[in-house]
Amino acid sequence: QVQLVESGGGLVQPGGSLRLSCVASGFIFSIYGMAWYRQAPGKEREWVADITSTGGSTLYADSAKGRFTISRDNAKNTVYLQMNNLKPEDTAKYYCNGRNVVRWNWGQGTQVTVSS
Question: Which of 16, 79, 85, 101 could be disulfide-bonded to 72 (CB atoms 3.0-4.6 Å)?
Answer without folding.
Answer: 79
